[in-house]
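REVIEWER CHECKLIST
Item 1: Sequence provided? yes
Item 2: Single chain? yes
Item 3: Sequence as submitted:
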Amino acid sequence: MSTALVTPEPAATAGHLEGRTALGITSPLNLRPSSVVDPAALADVLATARENAPSADVEAAFPTAVMDRLRTTRLLGLVVPTRYGGPGGTVDDVLAVSHALSRECTSSGMIFAMHSQQVEAVVRYGPPRLAEQLLPRIARGEVYLASVTTEVGNGGYLLSAGEAVENLGDTLRVQRMAPVVTGGEYADGYLISMRADTEAAENQVSLVYADAQDVTAEPLGGWNPLGMRATRSVPMRFDGAVPHGNVIGGSGRFREIVTETFGPLAHLGWSACWLGTAAGALARTVAWLRSPAERKHRDMTSDLLRSRLSHIRQRLDLVHALIAHGTDVYKTSQSPQAAPYQLLMNAVKLTASQECLAAVNDLIELVGMRHGYLKNSELGLERAVRDLRSAALNYSNDRLHAVDGAMALLDSEVRFV
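Item 4: Structure as written out by the authors:
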């Protein structure tokens, strides 16, 4: 569940992007999906997420009803290019759908965003034979991909690995424990990061696709957190063998994938989700404040009320502006390894994780105990603030600031992108 942008090396990009809509064209990010997303299909998924969210939160249950609708509407294959049977959606579409889902259920939005990040890695770096086999299945909604990139003790740092891929001759042995695998119990396939081989250094990391039928995937514990309860981010152990052709991007080349795709898409996707959660909370609160019943006994001309609303909206507009700028830079930059690029992407995550939580906390102050703090409040602020509390921990902000501090020292000109 964790991703960090760190000092990369130059990279080359392979991929299967033919049939994808204008990835390189920039336009203002309005967080509305393009025409490749069927509005009726999206409305169907959102309605399911809205209905399912309260019980999934109470029970800490994976949102299977939402996943089923993502499969049947084929939104699960949103970024699969048309040549593989997908709609050819763009990063803008992923952020828009993630944002919309998170207005109803943050866990569902994050699951979708992280799955789409995994699919994008297959699209861009997958070996041709694997792409031909896997991407059409994803486009048909048959494969939900989970990320297996955490290791005990590495704090979510992606670019080193202890456990190694073992060459068995005809196949590769994948034996790996991961402390956090979002939705892993329900996945149809996994992208697993491991040391490139038994002789490789810890920083020589490969990304391997393992189909669920090729590995045993054993949950090692439960999931009973404060928020994000429906993500079912449990510890798991994997053991099995996969074809040599399942190494994504080449042996030992995970760094390139992280720098060019995993890192920026994680930070943009997470941030779009957190913004969706906070924007949904604000929208519900404003509608409630404007209701005839509430207007009867509340002074809508109060300077304190208006000032608090202003500060909340300011926080969200700041986050939106950063996501929009970061998305444009992601689509157009030729230097993802440069410090200013990475500092911007990290700033998107850091700012969104802080400001979205602060905005919902301010909403609770505004509406008070009964409507802001109780679990059964119609405004749903209590669940939103619990979900958003995880944002700073979803790759620790402290670790990210430490990385940023090191990069800031290298950028004596203080350049911006």
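Item 5: Key structural point noted by reviewer: The chain is about 50% helix and 10% strand.
Item 6: Recommendation: ____
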